Amino acid sequence: MSVLTYTRAWSGLQEQTTTYVILPNELPQSGKLQVLWLLHGLGDNGSGFLRKTNLEVLDKYTNLAIITPEMNRSFYTNMDRGLPYWDYLTTEVIPTMRQLLPLSTARADNFVGGVSMGGFGAFKLAFSHPDWFSAVMAMSPVVDLTSLPQVMPDYQEIFSGPLPNQYLEKLAQEAPPAALKSLRTFYCIGDQDILKPQNARFVRRLQDQGTLTLDLKTGPGDHDWLYWQEMFPEMLRWLLNVRLSDGAPLKNQDE
């Protein structure tokens, strides 16, 4: 595998940030790579997936490009008292990485996922642009923004007014129903996760809306990297219709 660290100044943020990239050693002679846009959680950055999981080892068998942009403590939002991170992600990072790397722009080849705050960002990106992605993967996502005062002392940097209620549910309601219905959705959360009650309410609301089909996985686990590292192979099996048993490697479904 190849691991790239791409640092540059961005006009929207007026500062430098770093994007981390995992690529197969063998790049396609023709055609483009499928790509997983992977979003980090609060208090972390894109390097966390490389430092705290075996994602680089797993990706050896998938032929995916995995891109993890640095999004600070933004909640994937244009901050009220900070920087326009949502615009930076959607109008600068994604187009620029597609210019630099052999990434497919086809909906069928683009997937978005994330953990915790990044799970919120993955849902937000998929619900806002369901025509960009064919699959979304949320691991232990933050889904209730009204809970931020308990976990984020600087939340007013993002939302200086009243915290939005049922933010993601409203985004889902505004999305084109046909595109949302065709969006494959992997959703996992551990039984010991402090966020599980709010996630259970969120799942019920989405099911009541009837516009999104969730592949929901629960089981032992907390809100931590031990659980997320355990779920990454499951997520990749689900995403690419691959298997990992008896020492058999993950294989891309197109091979």
TrEMBL record:
Pfam families: Esterase
GO MF term list: acyltransferase activity, transferring groups other than amino-acyl groups
PANTHER family: DIACYLGLYCEROL ACYLTRANSFERASE_MYCOLYLTRANSFERASE AG85A, ENTEROCHELIN ESTERASE-RELATED
Protein name: Esterase
Organism per entry: Lentilactobacillus parafarraginis DSM 18390 = JCM 14109
Lineage: Bacteria, Bacillati, Bacillota, Bacilli, Lactobacillales
